[in-house]
């Protein structure tokens, strides 16, 4: 998501509101609705454990007496057995199937496609599309962006002047997709024919045939594969794709699902002078990721993570939210992404709803009670003197992967959620090294945590991303083992240079 502290049109400052000071009770109810929807599982599981523990304590004499007693109550035994069989069958058929993440791969572009920031500004001057004011505006944005000198741009944009053809756009996207997909297949050793579900997301580049068809053709995937192509869903589409794949894995037994997240810059750079549309030029960079999911219980042992929760928030019913990130033409007919002055306020509202829904699912009971008690005192009893309690999300998660949309977004989330610098380190370093890679950024961040050797068995990961529409989506994972640093990951050649101390 595009989020830099700038004032593109007027005196508006791009900041998140202090959303934790104004939580809405209906959002809390949503979280508890998610929790109670799994009440049957929560009740039956402990009961079955208690019965099993009691049975293990029975002696041989106890078993003989039980058998003698049951012989005189045959009808009751048959009825109880049928009821138990029905209950067990109902539970097995309705319980969600676990979704495992075997592995994922992130695209690392060629070194000759990286461009220092000062060289990027020089190319803006040579492009012939921008006046001096527009070049200077983009230079200021870059200075505050948090991007480093090793981010990557597609070949067509590096040309002078740029050459954004359809052919070049296909080449950019195919390079990212194929490199990530090839690495995923090599690391997991799965047969492409075993993939039963494919979900591809790319917001701004959706050619015909679709990108999912491009992958099917390249890897000769099977004819009955379920394919989905998501377009126009913004930087949070990666979490949406995971959610769709999860739902499909509930319907189709014993299969693999691959999620591919990418974005295209070649045909989507803005070459006009409208300042609210120039910001995206400074932030977006080349990237992509491929993720392999499975619902096979036999894959748990070799998987890295298990998906625990996905919470999606959509604010598109509100007109301001719908138009705050909007693709359109300027007065000269040049297409770009326009950012509203209300962007950060809308993002804060979406985030408030999302984390308030997520809280009851992930926070310890002690945190929930403190939060809920102060909320009721303020909202129901009007006790405004009671200070709002801000839940400590560090008690729910060991790792945070906040979409690297811009420096301001990371700064504001760090402050509002009272996170430590180490909690947002993966996001800051990803923004510095790779820029805003849109929907794939959360995977570069997870790869950073792994490359640092910080992922331990049982650790919980929170991936959170924003996107046009306007949307805020969260995915929660739990590590199934101590994850070793990947040998061919995107950080392989530079992880020892990070973290950097950024101004």
Given the structure, what is the number of helices?
17
Measured distance between first and last alpha carbons: 21 Å
Low-confidence stretches: 1-14
Give the fraction of residues assigned to helices.
40-55%
Can you offer a commentary on this structure?
The chain is built from 17 helices and eleven strands. A hairpin with a 3-residue loop joins strand 10 (460-467) and strand 11. The protein is globular and about 95 Å long. With 503 residues, it is of the alpha/beta class. Helix 1 packs parallel to helix 13, helix 5 (117-127) packs antiparallel against helix 6 and helix 6 (132-145) packs across helix 11 (275-283). Mean pLDDT is 86; it is low at 1-14. The longest helix has 23 residues, at 166-188.
Task: Briefly say what this structure is.
The protein has 503 residues and is of the alpha/beta class.
Task: Supply the key terms.
alpha/beta, globular, 9-stranded mixed sheet, 44% helix
Break the fold down into its secondary structure elements and pairings:
Layout: H1 25-36, H2 39-56, H3 60-71, H4 74-94, E1 100-106, H5 117-127, H6 132-145, H7 155-158, H8 166-188, E2 195-201, H9 211-219, E3 226-230, H10 237-251, E4 256-262, H11 275-283, E5 288-294, E6 305-314, H12 319-323, E7 325-329, E8 335-339, H13 343-362, H14 365-379, E9 399-402, H15 407-416, H16 425-434, H17 441-451, E10 460-467, E11 471-479
Parallel strand pairs: 2-3, 2-4, 9-10
Antiparallel strand pairs: 1-5, 1-6, 4-5, 6-11, 7-8, 10-11
């Amino acid at each position: 998501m595009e989020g830099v502290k700038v004032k593109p049109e007027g005196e508006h400052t791009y900041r998140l509101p202090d959303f934790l000071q104004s939580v809405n009770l209906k959002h809390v109810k949503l979280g508890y609705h998610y929790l109670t929807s799994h009440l049957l599982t929560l009740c039956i599981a402990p009961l079955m454990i208690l019965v099993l523990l009691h049975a293990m304590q029975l002696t041989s004499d106890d078993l003989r007496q039980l058998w003698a007693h049951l012989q005189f109550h045959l009808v009751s035994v048959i009825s109880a057995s049928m009821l138990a069989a029905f209950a067990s069958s109902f539970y097995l058929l309705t319980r969600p199937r676990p979704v495992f993440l075997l592995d994922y791969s992130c695209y690392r572009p060629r070194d000759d496609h990286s461009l220092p920031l000062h060289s990027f500004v020089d190319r803006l001057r040579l492009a012939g599309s921008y006046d001096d004011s527009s070049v200077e505006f983009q230079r200021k944005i870059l200075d505050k962006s948090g991007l480093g000198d090793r981010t990557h741009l597609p070949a067509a944009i590096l040309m002078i002047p740029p050459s954004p053809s359809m052919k070049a756009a296909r080449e950019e996207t195919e390079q990212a997709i194929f490199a990530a997909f090839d690495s995923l297949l090599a690391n997991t050793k799965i047969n492409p024919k075993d993939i039963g579900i494919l979900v591809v997301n790319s917001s701004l580049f959706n050619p015909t045939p679709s990108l999912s068809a491009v992958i099917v053709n390249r890897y000769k995937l099977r004819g009955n594969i379920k394919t989905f192509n998501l377009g126009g869903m913004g930087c949070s589409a990666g979490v949406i794709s995971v959610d769709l794949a999860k739902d499909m894995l509930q319907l189709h037994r014993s299969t693999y699902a691959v999620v591919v997240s990418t974005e295209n810059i070649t045909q989507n750079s803005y070459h006009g002078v409208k300042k609210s549309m120039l910001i995206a030029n400074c932030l977006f960079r080349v990237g992509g990721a491929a993720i392999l999911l499975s619902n096979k219980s036999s894959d748990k042992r070799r998987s890295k993570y298990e998906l625990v929760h996905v919470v999606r928030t959509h604010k598109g019913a509100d007109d301001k939210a719908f138009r705050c990130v909007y693709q359109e033409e300027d007065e000269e007919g040049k297409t770009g992404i326009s950012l509203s002055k209300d962007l950060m306020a809308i993002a804060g509202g979406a985030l408030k709803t999302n984390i308030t829904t997520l809280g009851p699912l992930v926070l310890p009971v002690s945190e929930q009670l403190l939060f809920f008690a102060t909320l009721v005192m303020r909202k129901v009893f009007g006790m405004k003197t009671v200070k709002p309690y801000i839940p400590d999300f560090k008690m729910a998660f060991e790792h945070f992967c906040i979409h690297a949309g811009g420096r301001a977004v990371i700064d504001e989330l760090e402050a509002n959620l009272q996170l430590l610098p180490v909690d947002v380190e993966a996001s800051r370093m990803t923004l510095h090294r790779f820029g805003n890679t849109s929907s794939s950024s959360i995977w570069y961040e997870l790869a950073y945590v792994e490359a640092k050797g910080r992922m331990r068995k049982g650790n919980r990961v929170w991936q959170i991303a924003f996107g046009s529409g306007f949307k805020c989506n969260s995915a929660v994972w739990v590590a199934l083992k101590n994850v070793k640093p990947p040998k061919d990951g995107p950080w392989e050649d530079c992880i020892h240079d990070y973290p950097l101390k950024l101004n």
